[in-house]
Amino acid sequence: MVACSVAEECPVAVSADLLWKVAFSSDDTSILLKACAGMIDAMDVEGDGGPGTVFTMKLNPATGDAKVFKTRVLAKDAAARMVRSEHVIEGGEIAAVLKSQETEVTVVPAGEGACVAKITVDYECINGAPLSPEDQAKLVHGYLGLIKKVEEYLVAHPGEVA
Fold first, then answer.
1. CB 104 within 8 A of CB 45
2. How many angstroms separate the CA atoms of 76 and 28, rounded?
3. 48 near 76, Cβ under 8 Å?
4. Three-class SS of residue 24?
5. For the stretch 141-157, what's the b/e string if a residue is b when 16 or more beta carbons lie within 10 angstroms of its beta carbon?
6. Along the 162 residues of the chain, how does pLDDT read in single tens digits?
7. How far apart are CA 156 and CA 75, in angstroms?
8. Any idea where the Bet v I/Major latex protein domain is (predicted)?
9. Which of 33, 36, 45, 68 can bridge 90 by disulfide, Cβ–Cβ 3.0-4.6 Å?
10. 127-130-133 Cα angle (round to 5)
C-alpha cells in the first residue's frame, strides 16, 4: 500500500479562537449543527471531545452519495489549535477506494478577526495507487467545506457565540 498525503490552506474570515471553539473544541455540537444545516442532519458524540472521542455525522442527501461520516479524535492540542483524527465515510465514490484516511487541522491566527485553516489529509487507497489530482482535491475540499460552512454561519451571526 502506498501512503499518500494532500495539504491545503484556507483563509477564514473569523478569529482563530472562534473557529476553534465552534468547530473543534468541545463535545457541544449545537452551533456546529446550526452552521452546517443542509450538510449535516444529525450528530452523535461518544466522549468528551478529546482523544478517543467519536463523532458520527449523518450527512444530508443533498451533499452527495456519502451517508455517514465518522471521526475518531487521535490527538488534540487546544493551545496550538490542532486536532488529528481518523475518518470513515460510508458511501460515495472516493470513500469506496480508500483503505484509511487521517486529517490534521491547525487553525492559525491571521490578523484581527481572521485565521487560516491548514489541513493535511493522509490516506491509503485499497488498490495501492494514489488518488487522481481531481479526487485529491475533492477529498480535501470535503473537509474544508465544513470549515467554510462554519465560517459562513459565524459571519452571518456575529455575537451568537461568546
1. no
2. 16
3. no
4. coil
5. ebbbebbbbbbebbeee
6. 458 999 999 999 999 999 999 998 876 788 889 999 989 999 999 998 899 999 999 988 888 788 898 999 999 999 999 999 999 888 878 788 898 999 999 999 999 999 999 999 999 999 888 999 999 998 998 899 899 999 999 999 988 886
7. 31
8. 1-157
9. 68
10. 140
Give the burial class of 134: count Cβ atoms within 10 A of its Cβ; 0-12 exposed, 13-18 middle, 19 or more buried.
Answer: exposed
Q: What is the strand order of the sheet 98-109 is part of?
A: 3-12, 115-125, 98-109, 82-90, 68-77, 54-59, 40-46
What letter does residue 120 receive in the DSSP assignment? E
Q: Give me 41's grid cell.
A: 442532519
Q: Which three cell numbers stand for residue 4?
A: 499518500
Task: Pull the grid cell for residue 80.
Answer: 496550538
